[in-house]
């Protein structure tokens, strides 16, 4: 397995990215239009034998914090440290870009991701209810 990092939309991997996203997020595809709206998009893709098996996407927030937006690993490849490696490489890279803090949002429904974030040094800083009436947990980590 290796990590492919791209700044901007990973067009060469877009179809596989959408498939893994749909697998991770209950059948929801990630529309190209949604990606196009994210200025400064950074994509880390876990690839094994030319097959995308995991991803981590993020972009700069207006308050100079890097927002780690979406991520996931195909269920057949979970438990192998892939999400942790994607997170470590994302944090190392954004630190070189001058970011001093990374933020992410979590949901209680995705406990494994909350636990992974806490294990990697994130702190819970707040909560809110989004426009879809889902409770979200805001986590931040100094870099």
From TrEMBL:
Claim: Transmembrane is one of the keywords in the record: no
InterPro entries per UniProt: Acyl_CoA_acyltransferase, GNAT_dom
Keyword Acyltransferase set for record: yes
GO molecular function term, any single one: acyltransferase activity
CDD domains linked to this entry: NAT_SF
Key words, A-Z: Acyltransferase, Transferase
UniProt-listed Enzyme Commission number(s): 2.3.1.-
Source taxon at top rank: Bacteria
Every N-acetyltransferase domain range: 3-143
Protein name per Swiss-Prot or TrEMBL: GNAT family N-acetyltransferase
Lineage: Bacteria, Bacillati, Bacillota, Bacilli, Bacillales
């Amino acid at each position: 397995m290796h990590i492919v990092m791209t700044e901007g939309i990973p067009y060469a991997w877009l179809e596989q990215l959408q498939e893994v996203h749909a697998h991770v997020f209950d059948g929801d595809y990630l529309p190209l239009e949604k990606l196009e709206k994210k200025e400064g998009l950074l994509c880390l893709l876990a690839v094994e034998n030319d097959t995308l098996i995991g991803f981590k996407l993020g972009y700069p927030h207006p308050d100079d914090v890097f927002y780690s937006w979406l991520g996931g690993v195909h269920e057949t490849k979970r438990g192998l440290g892939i999400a942790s490696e994607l997170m470590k490489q994302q944090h190392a890279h954004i630190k070189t870009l001058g970011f001093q803090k990374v933020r992410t949002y979590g949901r209680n429904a995705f406990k494994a991701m909350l636990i992974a974030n806490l294990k990697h040094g994130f702190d819970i800083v707040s909560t809110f209810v989004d426009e879809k009436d889902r409770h979200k947990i805001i986590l931040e980590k100094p870099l």
